[in-house]
Amino acid sequence: MAKANPEYQSVFDQIYDWLKQAKKDEVAQIMNWVEKANEYIKAAEAISVNEFQLSVDDFKRDLFGFHHNSQPKQEQSLYLQSVKEGMWQHLADMTDQSQVEWSELLDDFEHDGIYKTGDAIGFGQLECQQCGQSVDILHASTVTSCITCAGNEFKRKPLK
């Protein structure tokens, strides 16, 4: 058997050492998770079922109160609307575009490329048939009237 090239042997040794260290770190992390789970189990054993249910009910009530009190602010916040639209955009970007495009293409065939106010659309760009105003649809939504001329009929531009 031929002797290994010292340069390659050095690289292999470094990779081997790195893998051994990664394995040690991974085992340590798993052990930390197990210890944390044991702590949670012991803490859960220390309280009664009634106390646990009361704490869950209180948490639900607090969460509902927070949601109820912050809902009007969320609907009026331009920042939160921008964040929401940005998240939808990122989700659309991450989606398997080819599968979505086929689905949207079949939907286009049903609509013959023309969408009216109230129709559902996945995503794409609509152009008002009355004034030519374009609007980007970033997530599944209902087509609304044109913001420029209140037109009710749109043509979907081809997907890119």
Textual characterization of the structure:
Strand 3 and strand 4 (134-137) form a beta hairpin. The protein is of the alpha+beta class. The longest helix has 41 residues, at 6-46. The strands form two sheets. A four-stranded antiparallel beta sheet has the order 1-6-3-4, with no helix packed on it. Strands 2-5 form a two-stranded antiparallel ribbon. The protein starts with 5 loop residues before the first helix and ends with a strand. It has two domains: 6-76, no CATH class; 96-156, no CATH class. The protein has helices at 6-46, 49-76, 78-94, 97-111, and strands at residues 114-116, 120-121, 124-128, 134-137, 141-142, 153-156. The model has no long low-confidence stretch (mean pLDDT 78). The protein contains four helices and six strands. The protein is 63% helix and 12% strand.
Structural class label: alpha+beta
The tally of structural domains comes to 2
The rounded distance between the terminal residues' Cα atoms is 57 Å
Low-confidence stretches: none
